[in-house]
């Protein structure tokens, strides 16, 4: 959908902070599926944690991203997604080798512009829900930065500026 905008990129690059700013400005925002799954899994048996079973985690993220899109279908104006279906499909491709992103993109496309947070070591922090290294985050960023253009998206790398300036950049780019 043309009003569904993905904020993707490097883990720890400021996506969630940007989404919070956009939400504070009155836009609809959708929290990253991965964070929600990790919280759920940590409260349970933890079988689908990305550092335990990345394929199971990615499959859950795909299901959640599809449900998020359905839930947002009635939104008017821009809806910003902290990651989304393509990110989850790329993660599943990495593990299984099965081409998933193209299939999911054909069924559930997003706005043609995708905003990517670049690796930003100065703000990167691990936590209980983000247990991978900065090197792992950069590798993930590189996979996503390659996948989105192959699917026809225009990747717009966000500048390393304040969150207010980043939000202004996104909204200006969207017109």
From TrEMBL:
> Where is each NadR/Ttd14 AAA domain found?
5-166
Record-linked InterPro entries:
NadR/Ttd14_AAA_dom, P-loop_NTPase
Q: Which domain of life is it from?
A: Bacteria
Task: Give the protein name, as stated in the record.
Answer: Putative ATPase
Species, as recorded: Aliirhizobium cellulosilyticum
